Amino acid sequence: MESITIKDIAKKCGVGVSTVSRAINNHPDINEETKTKIMQVIKEYNYIPNNSARNLKRTESNTIAVLIKGITNPFFNNILKVFESEIQDRKYSFLLHRVEEHEDEIDLAVLLAKEKRLKGIVFLGGYFYHSIEKLKQLKVPFVLSTGGVSEKIDQKYYSSVMVDDYKESYKMTDYLCKLGHKKIAIISAPVDDESIGKLRLRGFKQALIDNNITPNPNLVRYQVDDTLETFSMKYGYEVTKELLQTGEEFTAIYAISDSMAVGACKAIFESGKKVPDDYSVAGFDGLDISFYYHPSITTIRQPAEEMSQETIRILFDIIDNKVNKEHKTFDAELVIGQSTKEYKRK
Amino acid sequence: MESITIKDIAKKCGVGVSTVSRAINNHPDINEETKTKIMQVIKEYNYIPNNSARNLKRTESNTIAVLIKGITNPFFNNILKVFESEIQDRKYSFLLHRVEEHEDEIDLAVLLAKEKRLKGIVFLGGYFYHSIEKLKQLKVPFVLSTGGVSEKIDQKYYSSVMVDDYKESYKMTDYLCKLGHKKIAIISAPVDDESIGKLRLRGFKQALIDNNITPNPNLVRYQVDDTLETFSMKYGYEVTKELLQTGEEFTAIYAISDSMAVGACKAIFESGKKVPDDYSVAGFDGLDISFYYHPSITTIRQPAEEMSQETIRILFDIIDNKVNKEHKTFDAELVIGQSTKEYKRK
């Protein structure tokens, strides 16, 4: 027999899940009659409340740490959610630690691993460029997730779950070129960014060249203001306002995150222009907002949920000695929204 | 002398912060000349890299747990960010644990406190209705943040940081009434929700009554589909689509979260109608998207950052024996966007 869930109990009693929960947890406000009925059904079906407290392993060392660079990037929200759930389902605890922009994450990881007796580590975001000697100091299983890695590091020294940021960025840019756009601005990360920002910028430039368009440095836009978070709506908004003020001609904007694309749209609307009639706007990531924005935003959808699950799956396969190192590159999907259209000379 | 930061070093060298970081961390890709120059400036100004690894206290028990109900609510993203940063700044670790909808958070907290030797706990979201006996089992300092608490629990048994959800919801509804709207729909939490959803619904109804409007039950809208996350864009979208199909007349929608308001707008646009010309739409929370959406969304801005800081401040004041229990209610702000307008009979 399939085990019965709290939802089944609620259904059988004709009440909501939280009412069942109140009955189980001795909520003082619940109607006595309802409570009695619920407790009868629970007994009848032998329902055992799935209480994670009861499932917790009795040892404090079952902890996985997630070390995150760029905690403010909304793309990470969904990922953290899945990490948290997947780690908790395996009855491990989830320790979240922010890595400062200029901080050495390996030093941090080595120390944390020792002090918290970690069983595994996920590095989320950032850019990995450490020497092999350095990487070898980290004895705990680890996986790099959705970040960038220097090509100089041999793949046998780490595990990773990524999309091909270069290829996917190329795909989006090529799409805009095929729509007839020749003057395409990019809202990118600060120029000294060594992470996915650099890869997406490279993909952009190569796609232009392959479409016989010479990249115009005046259309590569970014902010160096340290108070602005890269990849944020505000960043996209400020950079686009600045771009519009330069008077430099363009017909499309490709922002390397959906949040930045939302900010770009807002700046365009505020200037009295329209998306996509005056400017096409495209993003990257495939956040919910790309669908719910008005107009919906053309984007590259990263399979964030699958990537997060795979990250944890690989981490636990390493912990369980099923694999030593593993690499997985996911394909992302071009999702065409209402924010881009064919360019026609006016 | 003020201590010099990595940004100052970057400025003095005419490079970006991450270039300085690469120099410090022996990045293999950096230009040797640049590196030499940076290391000279670092030596000259006696700059000491602020490496949180070096600051970590050498004990594994300095851990604060955040127990979260409703991890998918984007309002919590900013809060978690501030928690994480404030906790890390105090050299404590941050353990994140999701509480199931029907789970008893006190049982969970008592167990976690013991197993992880927690120094403090924040309960984020949810609804507190436990008996005093139950609460007394939890010996570790704790603060309830942005959730709801049953009036039956004496305030001397817990600490809290909240907004007055009833009052703020009343404020928004009253604003819509004063604009001349009489047929106002609310997108609320499922009817058996015992948390802030209930309080916001109550404030809504009272404001209608005080404006001589009889609440119309057909305009109180929610979803019981368990696969839909309350407070999400999708929830607002699906509920509004359903409302539009009923043919029930209304001129304004008040969604009890900004994300739901975004979803509501999308459903309205898809039906060929306009915001605010055909329907006014208002939200709650004051997320970034309420400003960047097109049109910007009228909302109640919760001071999320201050509330989060205050939560951690109170928690550490309890840990440090400076206070025993403390309660703080923040005022929220009505922010008028472009999504609401005066109702004029057509």
From TrEMBL, chains A, B:
Protein biosynthesis in keyword set: no
Q: Name one Pfam family in it.
A: LacI
SMART domains referenced in this protein's UniProt entry, alphabetically: HTH_LACI
List each copy of the HTH lacI-type domain by range.
4-58
One GO MF term on file is:
DNA-binding transcription factor activity
Q: Does the keyword Cytoplasm apply?
A: no
Give UniProt keywords alphabetically.
DNA-binding, Transcription, Transcription regulation
**Could you identify this protein by its name?**
LacI family transcriptional regulator
Q: Which organism is it from?
A: Mobilisporobacter senegalensis
